[in-house]
Amino acid sequence: MDKKTILIVEDESLVALDLQARLEAMNYFIPVIVDTGEDAIKKAEELKPDLILMDIVLLGDVDGIEAADQIRSRFDIPVIYLTANTNQEILERAKITEPFGFLIKPFEERELHITIDMALYKDQMEKRLKENEERHRSLIETMTSIIWIADASGGFLAPQPSWEKFTGQPWSEHKGFGWTKKIHPGDRERIQEGWAKACRELSLHETWGRVWNASLNEWRDFELRVVPIMNLDGSLREWVGGVTDISERKKVAEELNQYAHIVSSTSDMMAMLNKKFKYVAVNAAYMAAFGKTKGEFIGHTVSEVFGDEFFDKVIKPSALNCLNGENVNYQAWFEFPATGRKYMDVRYSPYIGVGDEVTGFVVNARDTSVQQEMHEKQIEMEKQVQHAQKLESLGVLAGGIAHDFNNILTSVLGYAELALEDMSQASPARSYVEAISESSKRAADLTRQMLAYSGKGRFIIRKISLNEIIEEMVRLLEVSISKNVILKYNLSKDLPAIEVDVTQIHQVVMNLIINASEAIEDKSGVISITTGAMECSKAYLKNAWRVDNLAEGLYVYLEIADTGFGMDKEAMEKVFEPFFTTKFTGRGLGMAAVQGIVRGHKGAINIYSEVGKGTTFKILFPATYDSVDTAGPSPDVKDKIPVEGVVLLVDDEVTVQTVGKRMLEGIGLTVVTASDGVEALEIYRKRPGEFALVLLDLTMPRMGGEECFRELRQIDKDLCIIMTSGYSEQDVAQKFIGRGMTGFIEKPFHMANMRRIVREAISKRN
């Protein structure tokens, strides 16, 4: 038998040469290899091959599909397509040319052999069908991958060799009705019943099932189509059938079904649109977010579904870039009709169609609201931490400056008071010394303000009514504000008491009133002072200014509202920062001190302000259910009676030693001084039992007051020790809880206060 001639049309030389070697091994003749559609048409006309293997994508202007169409119509030569592209649009276009088969690259030799056999056999059958129209018409209708003929009773007569390859078994196993035994048990009864019915009715029989492939050791899926061939007298002549191996197709279909299931069940919103911005596909999440059905999307443009504004603002800018071949990614907040406000990570990907042309784009939008909210909270927390660290650093600085400044003031104020004590009322220099004393006290007030900002400014805590504090300040407030401003009081009756340092609350009120007056400027206005009590939830306190973990419960509030120019959001964010001020001049420390005082009292601040409409500060203090304290004790008349004893004064500042020594000697005491804890211990060990009292500074070089206190207590557990410091009594007392600190004297020393505390300590010891 003559060799069949096959023309190879392939633009990739390696693929073409490999294909040539395979075909020659199968005993086919390969006269030439061409790589363009134009050459394929030319060689088909010259050589008239039995079969052409045609690559779809070729060099030149004519692709494989167009070349095959011309060859089939002009020369009636069968064509098998070679392709690596399974794009549905390409396959549909190729089908129109009525190819004799498809080979998907890469393909196996068995598949190549079967497909060529099938194509050649199909071509042969077509030519025979032209001689016998009726018989061959039926054959053409049933022609598939594997052709076989059965006798009138239905027994196999002559299947193609490809049937043996399809089943992996010799013909002897299938002849007659042996083929039914190779059908899967689950399909056998159904197929046999259908076949019996077709035999009774002499009708077309179509079915599907699974057949065992012995060589592959697996079940293969097939489709079966059988038609009866009739004699001229109307009697049944034979059956012609076709079997198609659909195993791979089923696998692909299953994979596609799995992908479709994944896409439909994912929480990501997904949609595909074509170049005209019409919806081609949408998944369940996309429909759910917009509250629309599939029918409301598919075949409709974005403008038709959502309107021109949505299309122009949301879809079009990214879609145009995507249709130019770009991948687009962005994040933004969206308001969805059905699911509400979401922060979405949106991706646009171009969809590549025939000829590597962008035919549309895919939208994938993922809900990242939780992550975004956490990110925003983290940023806010970082801002708060940075703010807290800045305030803490400035607080430490302010506290340190105040402490050192108090040591200086101790000598200035102490010497001034000693000078006044020794100076006659008629002395012409007395007014100057009194001025020095007053200036020192004002400087001491400034150090208290710095300590208040640092959170170390609670000096004397009392249970008192907020109304009482305001009423004590009425006269002072009235002279501190502009004459064009009216003070309006709204003081609630029967307020619970609060535990505060009254002096510091005075400072809070004064700073807020002065700020309110300056906000009104030279215009007429009103400042309202309101007090009251309210139950505060954690949610309410959480929104207060720069506070953390306040306990919910009853709070007493002070509200100071003005009709001034108000503040914008930026100014409100900075209002408590040290040295920030909206005025042309001013140190800007007042509001920072207010925040420090309120924070030190475990209180909270709320601000309400609007430009042009004024500002309201609401200060909250925890309420206490205890009764208010009565006024403090009157000065003891015994203060002027001399006392006796030896006192050890320990301080690293020489001026403080000198002033303290003079003050103590003024009430009859003998004073021994030491510059630090080490020197104090040396002196005390040499003279045990001699000292009635030790005045011990907290902060000193070599050995500080806390360590020295501990060592002195080990020597004499009953020793009277009074601590001195520029910090508050509460801060110092925390360090000596349970250690038996006798008392505390605040710096700068006030002579009357110092002498009173020392007298009381020595009197108790005696």
Walk me through what this model shows.
- The protein is of the alpha/beta class and 766 residues long.
- 44% of the residues lie in helices and 23% in strands.
- It is built from 24 helices and 26 strands.
- Strand 1, helix 1 and strand 2 form a beta-alpha-beta unit.
- The longest helix is centred in the middle third of the chain and has 54 residues.
- The relative contact order is 0.05.
- About 2% of the residues have low confidence.
Explain the layout of strands and helices.
Layout: E1 6-9, H1 13-25, E2 33-34, H2 37-47, E3 51-55, H3 64-75, E4 79-83, H4 88-95, E5 101-104, H5 109-131, H6 133-142, E6 146-150, H7 161-167, H8 185-201, E7 205-213, E8 218-230, E9 236-245, H9 247-265, E10 269-274, E11 279-282, H10 284-290, H11 302-306, H12 308-323, E12 328-336, E13 340-352, E14 358-367, H13 369-422, H14 430-453, E15 461-464, H15 466-480, E16 485-490, E17 497-501, H16 502-520, E18 525-536, H17 538-542, E19 553-562, H18 569-574, H19 590-600, E20 604-610, E21 614-624, E22 646-650, H20 654-665, E23 670-674, H21 677-686, E24 693-697, H22 705-715, E25 721-725, H23 729-735, E26 743-746, H24 751-765
Parallel strand pairs: 1-2, 1-3, 3-4, 4-5, 16-18, 22-23, 22-24, 24-25, 25-26
Antiparallel strand pairs: 6-9, 7-8, 8-9, 10-11, 10-14, 12-13, 13-14, 15-17, 17-21, 18-19, 19-21, 20-21
Helix pairs in contact: 2-3, 5-6, 13-14, 13-20, 14-19, 15-16, 16-19, 21-22
